[in-house]
């Protein structure tokens, strides 16, 4: 029987916590120009691109935990420099360092959580990635709101940056407790260590022999041997050469980038400026922004808990349809407010922005990162997920760099781009997004036209048994004759 222990849950929660505690540079206490704000966001995500790409190679060679450790150390260095910055230039340099760390952690979390979670609970456990990104936003916004009242001193912006260092220190300490991915260990021939971790992950008092963990080890070993044989034939560029892997890469990129093409990060990163454009004061804008991200965080947790019950495909389709629909209405109300700036239109626009982030939180955010990681085989999972997340950071750079200028020139019309992209992603998912929930990682190959190694071995054994039975029957007939 498939089982999981609280060790699974605690390990995942710890690794995911605080993924986006990075403070919002648009908050009033920074007092920076749109140019500096744009650079701070752009450099952060541009560096994240390189951090994400580096993760595939490092985690495949050295392990998932080593990436956690490296990302934590880099994050600590960047956070300290950010906190101690004495000029905009120094702060921007630190943003490059923290952005690189973000890219690494952002890739390895869904890869690692997917690899330690059992199939029927992978949605909720790996979905914690999206949930705790929003916990980070939640904490950053409330810290920003509190520090606004100290905006006359450097504490108003230094303290939010110092929190990054605290989280990175906690994550670094935790890497000496949380387990390495058993799939990575098996790929390096360390099966005894992998089995001990599987015992801890799937401990069940009703299964004293740990039969599920032992069977999972066999399945993992068979699939990894098959993957490594295929990798020798496909070479270094197997992810791009073979059609089955190209399909998975495109799907992972469409799911991951699609979450950002909804416009969610533009709203999150520029919420203080957006709310002030609706007539709110600086403190009111920060308070509404904190409430917005609290609402988003709660929606994410709700979404993660239904991921395995209703399936990733259904939830993502509902999400992109509802999210885009809410954004259509919100954009229309923002347009109306630009013509008739009354509290009625501002209030309605805010209401639909809250509905918009609710749809994103329940139906998109917890599930997109799960799919982006689980569609790849073990030997390509870090590389493929790294590429998908790298493209996410490029999309973030594009949308965030354009946002300040767009707000001043075309205003609400900028959001029409995200509405159009939401429609494109919905159509793509309708035709090409398979259902992955409930399947073991090794069995997802079937969705892309490949027979899992365990099933292939069973088929071979059945053929051999059938052939042996025929021979025995023939021999018996000869004896009787």
Give the proportion of residues in helices.
over 70%
CATH class category name: Mainly Alpha
| CATH homologous superfamily annotation | MFS general substrate transporter like domains
Q: Give the end-to-end Cα distance, rounded to a whole number of Å.
A: 48 Å
How much of the sequence lies in strands comes to: under 5%
* Unreliable residue stretches: 1-7
Query: What is the CATH architecture annotation?
Result: Up-down Bundle
Average pLDDT, all residues: 86
> What would you call the shape?
globular
| Helix and strand composition category | mainly alpha
Question: How many domains, as an integer?
Answer: 1
The number of distinct helices, counting runs of at least 4 residues, comes to 21
CATH names the topology as Growth Hormone, Chain: A
The SSE order reads HHHHHHHHHHHHHHHHHHHHH
Assembly state of the chains shown: single chain
State the total count of DSSP E strands: 0
What value does the Rg take, in angstroms?
A: 24 Å
Largest sheet: none
Subcellular location: Membrane
Keywords: Membrane, Transmembrane, Transmembrane helix, Transport
GO molecular function: carbohydrate:proton symporter activity
Region (Disordered): 455-481
